[in-house]
Design a protein that fits this description.
Elements: H1 20-27, E1 51-60, E2 63-71, E3 80-88, E4 94-96, E5 101-102, E6 109-111, E7 117-121, E8 124-133, E9 139-146, E10 154-155, E11 162-163, E12 170-173, E13 179-183, E14 189-193, E15 200-206, H2 211-214, E16 227-236, E17 239-246, E18 252-258, E19 266-272, E20 284-288, E21 291-298, E22 310-316, E23 346-347, E24 350-351, E25 353-355, E26 358-361, E27 367-370, E28 377-386, E29 389-398, E30 403-409, E31 415-422, E32 427-437, E33 443-452, E34 460-468
Antiparallel strand pairs: 1-2, 2-3, 3-4, 3-5, 4-24, 6-8, 7-8, 8-9, 9-10, 9-11, 12-13, 13-14, 14-15, 16-17, 17-18, 18-19, 20-21, 21-22, 23-34, 25-28, 26-27, 28-33, 29-32, 29-34, 30-31, 30-33
């Protein structure tokens, strides 16, 4: 048996510190009780094992890829060193792809891995991020590139794409193929990107921040409009939308529209009012599989706040005239689109809700769920068992005495349909497959993988898969 596994560092297992039911109710105390969902339905925030911020969704090849910042545990400032990627095919079960981009990617950057956005063009993925330029001490916009939406990403230029001390880049590619990079706080700028997406034509243009275009702020003569930061630009039905974080602090989300990508802009009102326990917010909007989705962040996890934030999502519908309705934060989040197939390999790090777990790079590739203690669990939502499953197989490892994977339906203490024992495998990255019988898993259910055992860390899990129950052949 190997020595006891050290605690994950620098990660803090904050989710287990406070029960998720209580923490969510406290975090959303600003939501009227009449509309607060029950804790059992909670799926927001969509990531629970690390703090995430500044969501930037991208729809590609039947999935939503979500690019986020990463607030360090216990931060008392915007202490951010890397970016993270997640993806989902159903808007509720999110796969953790780890960190394919960090400050270390940019040799010229010294700190501040803040809010960015990734876009796809001609089969390549370009991630625009603000970082501090070591040589000048100013914020600058860098661009990284990859052949995959999940990376790894490399610095495309070896120097800033543009630098004027301002932050929060967003990129929009118009229907005619012209791409635009927007960014700015306290101002709002844009440049026209060339087709290579790593250079631009002309010089940076400052968008006039008029009260007609961006609303009226009172009490600050230096900031007469509501525009603060975090622009997000897109086109829908011939109308251009610019959604932004408004009036710090605390921020709310507002938007303006225009007949063209450079204006003139007309202020349209509030998208998400000030709420939650973060004094900042950051928008991202996409359409996916027939629905429209608004991504944002709050401070809803245990230990959460303005410097330890968490990304969440809501589904919404545009009004008939194209305006965006007012959207409130919920603990329920977006409804599931379709179901999850348990009879194909599913990554263990595909999670609707996790309690106590962490993820890490796996020795066989990808990531695994680890740092598992007795009582920890993973929820996978909307699993389509159909006529029934006969067995369950998981790829596991353990450097301790191991433990048991309980297969439960509906809740962590719900109907038990199977139990898989995990032995000591000779190391935390010494992988083996275990299989156990399953009985009673039919229909579409929320699946809970609940881990039990002795003290200390029990096991890691890389992937899992059910086997369907054999059906009788039809008579001839």
């Amino acid at each position: 048996m190997t020595a006891a596994r050290p605690s994950p560092a620098p990660r803090t297992r904050f989710v287990r510190a406070v029960t998720w039911t209580v923490s969510l109710l406290l975090a959303f105390a600003v939501v009227p009780a009449a509309v607060r969902p029950t804790a059992a339905r909670a799926d927001n925030p969509i990531v629970q094992h690390v703090y995430t911020a500044d969501p930037a969704p991208l729809v590609y090849n039947g999935r939503v890829y979500l690019y986020t910042g990463h607030d360090e545990d216990g931060s008392t400032y915007f202490t951010m060193k890397d970016w993270r990627v997640w993806s989902s095919a159903d808007m509720v079960n999110w796969t953790d792809h780890g960190s394919p981009l960090s400050l270390a990617t940019f040799s010229w950057a010294s700190s501040d891995a803040w809010a960015g956005q990734a876009v796809q063009r001609n089969g390549r993925f370009y991630w625009y991020v603000p970082v501090k330029n070591r040589a000048t001490g100013r914020m600058a916009i860098g661009v990284a590139v990859s052949d995959s939406p999940t990376g790894p990403f490399r610095d495309a230029l070896g120097h800033p794409l543009v630098e004027n001390g301002e932050i929060d880049p967003t990129v929009f590619i118009d229907d005619d193929g012209q791409a635009y990079l927007y960014w700015g706080n306290p101002n709002l700028w844009y440049v026209r990107l060339n087709a290579d997406m790593t250079s631009y034509s002309g010089s940076a243009t400052r968008i006039p921040l008029t009260t007609a275009g961006f609303g009226t702020r009172t009490g600050d003569p230096d900031r007469p409009t509501l525009y603060e930061e975090g622009p997000w630009v897109y086109r829908r039905n011939g109308l251009y939308y610019l959604v932004f974080a408004a009036r710090c602090c605390s921020e709310f989300i507002a938007y303006s529209t225009a007949p063209g990508p450079t204006g003139p802009w007309t202020y349209r009102g509030t998208v998400m009012p000030t709420q939650g326990s973060s004094f900042t917010n950051h928008p991202g909007i996409v359409d996916f599989k027939g629905g429209s989705y608004f991504f944002y962040h709050n401070g809803a996890l245990p230990g959460g706040g303005g410097f330890t934030r968490s990304v969440a999502v809501e589904r919404f519908s545009y009004n008939a005239d194209g305006t965006i309705p007012t959207i409130g934060m919920t603990t329920a989040g977006a409804p599931q689109v379709g179901t999850l197939d348990p009879y194909v390999r599913q990554e263990a790090e595909t999670i609707a809700w996790g309690s106590g777990i962490e993820t890490e790079p796996a020795g066989e590739g990808g990531r695994d769920v680890g740092w598992i203690d007795d009582g920890d669990f993973v929820k996978v939502k909307g699993v389509a068992f159909g006529t029934g499953a006969s067995s369950f197989t998981a790829r596991v490892s353990s450097g301790s005495a191991g433990g048991t994977v309980e297969l439960r339906l509906g809740s962590p203490s719900g109907t038990l349909v199977g139990r898989c024992g995990v032995p000591n495998t000779g190391g935390w990255q010494a992988w083996t497959s275990v299989t156990c019988p399953v009985s009673g898993a039919t229909g579409t259910q929320d699946l809970f993988l609940r881990f039990t055992g002795g003290s200390g860390y029990l096991l890691n899990m890389d992937w899992w898969r059910f086997t369907p129950r054999a059906t009788a052949a039809a008579p001839r």
